[in-house]
Known about the structure:
About 30% of the residues lie in helices and about 30% in strands. It is of the alpha+beta class. It folds into three domains: about 5-100, no CATH class; about 105-225, no CATH class; about 235-290, no CATH class. The protein has a four-stranded mixed β-sheet. Strand 7 and strand 8 (about 210-220) form a beta hairpin.
Amino acid sequence: MNWKKNFVRKGSAARALWTMLLGSLLSTSAFAGQYWVSCSSCSAQQASASASAAPQPPGAWGLHSDFVYVVDPINRSARKYEVTTILDPLFYNRSAQEISVENSVKASLESFWVRAEAFAKIDVPVENSPSAVAYLTNGYYSGRTRGWLDEGADGLVGMINAARFVTNVSAAQAMAALGADRGPLVLVLRFSDGSRLKVEVKMGQDAMTSAPTIVGVSVIPASAFDQGNNPLPTEAAGMGPYDVFNPSPSLLAALQALANAYNVPVSAGCGGVGTRWRCSANGTCELTHPC
């Protein structure tokens, strides 16, 4: 970029001003370090824009350069940019120039991604929660599961840290490689009784150690299923419409437990030749047995 063009005007005063400013810029030039951001399925132009938009260090006045890695967790690739910032009271500009990614960085990321495939589906120990229904209806079990995901050696953060250690990937690299710096991770939690559900896990980094940590876990609506692959409502609004004839004893018990947890009224009746569970879209359920 021709910086002089933005300042120099006719006359010695303008030239003197430019000389003074450029001297100030060069005197404060420094390389601050490396930054990692994710950009899923990004084009080269989008990746460059992400690099330019990466946070800059506080107090980085003058001519300042950073190295920014833009990681695509979907296509499992990475780009590296030297991002130059000119910042003073009269002028601001940020530009990104793509440069080669080190082979060692590529190898570490590729190894990390191979291990990260195990993060998508996690088996929950029975002592943390025996089933999806227990997770959905009992705060004790959902709380234990979240704590295990964050702190357990074989929980989510434990697996991320183990993969980091083996592949020599930093916390910032891991967050970008997973796309966790831009949005929540989606995990399938599998329980010992064969049921499952999906959660969104919002990740952060510990303020003291920069290590990955979990800052929020939420159930994805309509993502829960029992061991027979029957849908399980994840919220009161999802109880209906639902209509099942002769449900298995375990499914019926699960539906009753969920209705009770969500404060959905269930009326009892008799009629027909079998057991029927029906819930309407207006938030009421009915259980009928043969008379």
